[in-house]
Amino acid sequence: MAKVEYDAFLAVCPSRELLDRISDKWVTLILCALGGGPANPDHDGTGEPRPMRYSELARLLAGVSQKMLTQTLRSLERDGFVTRTVTPTVPVTVTYEVTELGLSLYQAVRGLKVWAETHMDTVLLNRETYDTTPAEG
């Protein structure tokens, strides 16, 4: 079978929908957590990939609603970026782990997270300057 060529600049290209999905902040933060995220809050996020329980992810991702975390994890599982493992304990234990495909995306989005953290002060200063400068025209 011939390899299909995708072009996200085209409105009808399915890769555009994938790009929309993977550019979500919660996707980035979940992949960063599973791909090498903090074992503790002071960690720099460059550790080894490790499985995490749903409750661990919920605690780590401050501000994410239960509904959004569940939807995002299901979407990541459907696309093959994470695997979900249910262990029949009391209570049931559910863990999520990044896949090889997910690790390849993690390599890209980790840089985006680091860039945002590194340049936030500059962006805030630029916003303040823009917002206080009278509009021309």
Automatic annotation (TrEMBL):
UniProt-listed InterPro entries: HTH_HxlR, WH-like_DNA-bd_sf, WH_DNA-bd_sf
Gene Ontology molecular function, alphabetical: DNA binding
Keywords, in A-Z order: DNA-binding, Transcription, Transcription regulation
Residue ranges of every copy of the HTH hxlR-type domain listed in the record: 13-124
Alphabetized Pfam families for the sequence: HxlR
Source superkingdom: Bacteria
PROSITE patterns, alphabetized: HTH_HXLR
Name of the protein this chain belongs to: Transcriptional regulator
Species this protein is from: Saccharothrix coeruleofusca
Phylogenetic lineage: Bacteria, Bacillati, Actinomycetota, Actinomycetes, Pseudonocardiales
